[in-house]
Amino acid sequence: MSGLMHIQSMVQDLAEAIAAALSIEVEIVDHELTVIAGSSCYAHKIGQKEELGQLDSNYLYARTLRSGKSFVVTDPVKDPDYDPSSLEGTTPELAEICTPITLENNVIGVIGLVAFTQEQKENLLSKMDTIMPFLKHLSRFLAAKVSESEAVERLSRVSKELSTILETIHEGALALDAQGVVTHCNTTAGKLLNLDRDHIIGKRLDELWVDTPAMEVIKTGNEYIEKEEIYKYKGRRSMHFIVSVRPIPGKDKPDGAVVSFRDISEARRLIYDLSSTARDYTFDDIIGQSDDILQVKKQALRVAGGNSTVLITGESGTGKEIFARAIHKASSREGGPFISINCGAIPETLLESELFGYEGGAFTGAKKEGKSGKFELADGGTIFLDEIGEMPLHLQVKLLHVLQDMVVERVGGSKRIPVNVRVIAASNRDLEQMMQENNFRKDLYFRLNVIPLRIPPLKDRREDIPALLEMCLQKYSSILNKQIDTIEPEAMECLVNYNWPGNVRELENAIEYAVNMTDHEVLTISNLPPRIQKKLSRKSAVSTNTALKDKMSEYERKILKEYLELYGSSYEGKQLIAKKLDISRATLYRKLTDLGLSDS
């Protein structure tokens, strides 16, 4: 059995986590071209041979194993040395990056990131500069885990050195004799069990962990690796571990066993750290000096230090997830994971298992060992539930129970798994209206709406638009390798007066388009997207010089000027003017701009 096969369960979890995080397919093979782990497109091939098992061939993985070098294939169909199936033109792969897993100068396997769609291919190749170092880091991690696994196996045969060696293992470690009595406990194990070692050594393991399957290993000699187990000890809180148990060989039966274990939150955090590619956001990354945005930032920063549930509302594209990440970054949970899930992007049939996990065999296609859900992965950190208004009613009930009790039950399971997470939810829909229409549970709404934050749309904070435009201009000029310094005044006026129904996301797209469309150092109106130019043309077309319209404009200008003199031009003053005139703030700002009073 290969070294990677010894840690197959962990390798499979890691492959799935990377595939989900990078939106790419993942395949991992050992030094004999046996598929050890794979994401959805490769799961059915686990245990089978890749490249017909031909180690002496010139195919991609065989070549990687022999050379110890990484390879990038941008067009597998036209590469006869890619894979045997590509010779027949039947391979669906569009691109692949693979790198060797090296342990002590020996190549023990290969990691492959594979694109099956054009979108995946563009994503894979465009991020090559960051993916290659990530793959090397992942390779070193897997090699280290194989090394640890092999070390524990060797050490189990050398009982006289067991005490010294177990202390060097960063996981919790217990040595058991033939009766299951703990003969040694390392420092980490004592910390994980929250007991003095004197209270552990000399006790049978099943006194500490009731009904532990580790006792069967001593009887049968059949080891198990990376198994998820939950225990309680003398009324203490539940302990959730990843456990491996290996027998100590004897003449006729095992002389005992070595138990290694770690807190499941550590394992989840490791997977998150390795697979997370999203950048951290702070409140300094949120652009804007308008009264509206400063007020929201101040509120968010004030509540970041607590653990209360936050509900962020606002139109699509206003930056709700950035606010959520900034709150997490400013909180005491900063060192924990930030897990984001879009409740509207996952099919209803899969959403429950994605959120809460499932037990092995819970449904057709389920992994035999089960799978942790997003709430478990977020343990010790923050979970961000985007588009919460899209969650079906029957799942809203289960979510409510999780929020109330902070325990989850996996699909097909009965164990109650405690979780320590902060929940931040977001929606661009009117949840209060949905409550009235019985499309959203009232009890869940009030449980989520402990700390409400509303992100203002861009049309209500036009004074922030120039700063956002400057930020986007710098960003896309750098990405597209262009020297664009400024936006001409006419184009700037057009962009500031545009209503931005798509908010900051639409603004970014507009500047990216404009930077692509110009060869000069200044952006002009002609570089702007057609929809914005069309809006400008329509506005110009309907504008007339009729005496009636001139008189109406002059009359409006006179009224607004009087109100500005009476109530002032501060945020509160303009809010009061809009209320007195029975118009929205957006309409007021537009009229002030059109009538030349925006500087008043």
Walk me through this protein's architecture.
This protein is of the alpha/beta class. It folds into five domains: 3-142, Beta-Lactamase; 159-268, PAS domain (Beta-Lactamase, 2-Layer Sandwich); 278-454, Rossmann fold (3-Layer(aba) Sandwich), CATH 3.40.50; 458-542, Helicase, Ruva Protein, domain 3 (Orthogonal Bundle), CATH 1.10.8.60; 547-594. The protein is 43% helix and 17% strand. The protein contains 25 helices and 19 strands. A five-stranded antiparallel sheet has the order 2-1-5-4-3, with helices on both faces. The chain has a five-stranded antiparallel sheet with strand order 7-6-10-9-8. A five-stranded parallel sheet has the order 12-13-16-11-17. Helix 2 packs across helix 11 and helix 12 (291-304) packs across helix 13. The chain is globular and about 105 Å long.
Termini separation (Å)?
79 Å
What structural class do the secondary elements suggest?
alpha/beta
Q: Strands of the largest sheet, in order across it?
A: 2-1-5-4-3
Major sheet: 5 strands, antiparallel
Strand content: 15-25%
Secondary-structure topology with pairs:
Blueprint: H1 3-6, H2 8-22, E1 25-30, E2 35-38, H3 60-67, E3 71-73, H4 84-87, E4 95-103, E5 106-115, H5 118-126, H6 128-155, H7 162-166, E6 172-177, E7 182-185, H8 187-193, H9 205-208, H10 214-220, E8 224-231, E9 239-248, E10 256-263, H11 264-275, H12 291-304, E11 310-313, H13 320-329, E12 338-342, H14 348-356, H15 374-377, E13 382-386, H16 393-405, E14 407-408, E15 417-418, E16 422-427, H17 431-436, H18 442-448, E17 451-454, H19 465-479, E18 486-487, H20 489-497, H21 503-517, E19 522-523, H22 530-542, H23 547-567, H24 571-581, H25 585-594
Parallel strand pairs: 11-16, 11-17, 12-13, 13-16, 18-19
Antiparallel strand pairs: 1-2, 1-5, 3-4, 4-5, 6-7, 6-10, 8-9, 9-10, 14-15
Helix pairs in contact: 2-11, 12-13, 19-21, 23-24
